[in-house]
Design brief:
- By secondary structure, the protein is of the alpha/beta class.
- It folds into three domains: 115 residues, Response regulator (Rossmann fold, 3-Layer(aba) Sandwich), CATH 3.40.50; 116 residues, 3-Layer(aba) Sandwich (Rossmann fold), CATH 3.40.50; 122 residues, STAS domain (Transcription Regulator spoIIAA, 2-Layer Sandwich).
- It is 41% helix and 19% strand.
- It is built from 14 helices and 14 strands.
- The strands form three sheets. The protein has a five-stranded parallel β-sheet, sandwiched between helices.
- Helix 12 links the parallel strand 13 and strand 14.
- It is elongated and about 90 Å long.
């Protein structure tokens, strides 16, 4: 359940700053402009915390606090007082009425978050149902690396994505960047001078803004001791140099729970197209297979019954590909989806060299496969049958 924080302050600017401060966290910010409004909102909503200004018109913070503590239904709501520098002594004098702390205005966002987190369990905003982030959504990626050539590799290797790469060269720059804007994911090079990479990791994990942010360690493949240390202290994942960008994308998707189905599935009019890439490794097939049944069900729900598996980019056949096709055709039979398969000539020849797959039907172009499906010359019943491993 989302926590409710009530801010009672006659300054719209202060209320706006508080709303902005807690925007990254899963909590509801309620507002009131004076003590009278504050008591009314508190009675209706029963907030988990009240941020109460001392000096306000109509009813000030001291009177509102007094009335809160006199009301059996409201007295247990934690209250934190807000005051200008000159009002610090006044707050201390009324602390005996019952407050959980105070903060002096103007305040820094980090200080407010730190104090509130002692009272309310702040958690980052979580994307709810229907708001699942995908591999094609923008992501802010912070790379902490002091070698410009490595930063350039990230920029070049990920330029096909909508991801924004921010490169910094030191621990201090990284901390400064995170204080201004919280990245979606952070990559820290373990080759930074001294122990600064591990020190930076500890600082980021101690900061509420980056406490739950995925943090990857970037390290040379042969430096096994550094990799073991990174795993031990809790880095989310290890990325090795030289960097395999496809592997990096996969690890980012896993760490951020991104929907990667758009890599493999797309709608083309009345057809569901399943695209398998040139690098059709077993991990890639496993990733595609997890979306197979849901995507076929979505197609049926949308009124479509035609699907094409496009193997034309694939250069080499292996058992994992055969198993994927068998799984797909079995699912299509269950849903009465008509399926066609596209493959390049060398790959089709490989299929024909195996007795178990020799009788499978293939098309050499997407146009041919679509025409076959629309003419009804290729049905789900003609699809490949199970093959023993």
């Amino acid at each position: 359940m989302r926590h409710k924080i009530l801010t009672v302050d006659d300054s719209k600017t202060v209320r706006l700053i508080i709303r902005k401060t807690f925007k990254p966290f899963d909590c509801e910010i309620l507002e009131a402009g004076n003590g009278v409004e504050g008591l009314s909102v508190a009675a209706k909503t029963q907030p988990d915390l009240i941020l109460l200004d001392v000096t306000m018109p109509v009813m000030d913070g001291v009177e509102m606090l007094t009335r809160l503590k006199a009301d059996p239904k409201l007295r247990n709501i934690p209250v934190m007082m807000l005051t200008a520098e000159g009002g610090r002594d006044n707050v201390l004098s009324i602390a005996k009425i019952g407050i959980r702390g105070y903060i002096v205005k103007p305040f820094k966002e980090d200080a407010m978050i730190e104090k509130v987190s002692r009272i309310v369990d702040l958690k980052p905003v979580s994307d709810g149902p229907g708001k699942v982030r995908t591999i094609l959504d923008p992501i802010d990626l912070l790379v902490v690396e002091d070698k410009p050539a490595i930063l350039q590799q990230f920029e070049q290797g990920l330029k096909h994505t909508p991801w924004k790469i921010h490169g910094v060269a030191s621990q201090g720059e990284a901390i400064d960047h995170c204080s201004r804007s919280t990245p979606d994911l952070i990559v820290i090079s373990l080759s930074l001078s001294g122990d600064s990479a591990f020190a930076l990791f500890r600082i980021l994990r101690a900061n509420l803004k980056t406490k739950f942010t995925p943090i990857f360690a970037l390290v040379v493949k042969t430096e096994t001791d550094a990799q073991a240390q990174a795993q031990k202290i809790g880095f989310t994942a290890i990325v090795t140099k030289p960097i395999d960008m496809a592997d990096l994308e996969s690890k980012v998707a896993k760490a951020m729970n991104l929907d990667t189905s758009k890599h493999y599935f797309r709608s083309d009019g009345e057809f569901l197209i399943v695209d398998l890439p040139q690098n059709c490794s077993n991990p890639v097939l496993a990733e595609a297979a997890q979306y197979l049944a849901p995507k076929l069900a979505e197609a049926v729900d949308a009124g479509h019954s035609l699907a094409v598996i496009d193997l034309s980019p694939v250069r080499s056949l292996h058992l994992g590909i055969i198993k994927f096709i068998v799984q797909a055709t079995q699912s299509c039979r269950e849903l009465t989806i008509h399926l066609a398969i596209v493959g390049n000539a060398p790959l089709i020849a490989e299929f024909k060299s195996f007795e178990e797959t020799r009788s499978w039907n293939f098309h050499e172009s997407m146009e041919e496969a679509k025409a076959s499906l629309k003419q009804g010359t290729h049905s789900a019943a003609d699809a490949p049958h199970a093959v023993e491993a």
